[in-house]
Please model this.
Amino acid sequence: MCIRDRFMRYCAGVVVWVSILFLLLAIGFLGYLCYQKAKAAQTNSTEVNTASDTVQTSTEDNNTDDERTRKALEITAYILWGLDVFCILALCCLYHRIQLAIAVMKSAALFIIDVPTSLAVPPILSFFLFMYYAWWIATHVFIFTLGTNEKLDGWPIGKIKWTEEIRYMNYFHCFGFLWNNALFMALSQFVLASSCAIWYFSDKEQGAHKPVSKSFWRAFRYHFGSLAFGSFIIAIIQTVRIILEYMHQKAKESGAIKQNKLLEYLFRCLKCCLACFERFIRFINKTAYIQIAITGKNFCRAAKDGFQIVWNNPLRFSIVSGLGEVFNFIGKCSITFISTLIGFAVVTNFEYYRS
Model:
């Protein structure tokens, strides 16, 4: 193993553990600040009560507010410390699985170094996707204006009346937008997965030869139908969600929602179920594209194999695949904690905000 590989493997592990340690320390430190602020509020409340007894001034309302603030800060501190302890216990229980996830991240780091062209895949596809958006908008404007103009009494603008053919053409065009949008996402996932598979199974001495170009060729030559089929399923689900949202808005306009609250709950429940179902299908599609990139099977067999792998290794797979989400969460939490600490310091140290 060369020095570069050793450095990347060492660096990836250090970054993971340092990030986890930073998150634990940040949660504990924020709890400490809340507890110290609660103690300071209790001390101030005691001094105010002593002074009020001396000058015979009524401060019961202020004392009540201070006591509520103190209790809220104290409870927040205990919750943060409890969360910190829970994270430490989970870290101890899942240590070996985290080590496996770190090993995957080390391989991913080496893949990025050996195949830097993989970083250009999302920007390139995003550029073509935006080009498609521009074409779709221009085409939609032409289709929208194919009808006949009708004047409206009292209005300076008219109304476009469509024939049945133009209406269905518009519906088909909108469905095509959803389908092609999902297809671009599927193509990006497949190309990256295929490039990684070609790199991983190639000869380590010679290295992989143009894995990104080969992956694009594989996508369009052998597996474009599978990618289109998975995208078609996503487009159907999104179409059903749009239709349901349209029905919900029409029910609000007609006043049916105000007359029957059960109808409102039913719409919200259906929208929530469809949103969860779409996320589930997206996850299945992603695992199917990875299996297609590795084994070359069709979409249905790849989706079945991917689901079986996830089903047989739920905990291991969730940790390995979710480590990227954990890092996103750590980044968001770091921004939140830093912003909170800065805001806390500003509010407590500047006289303008304290008064």
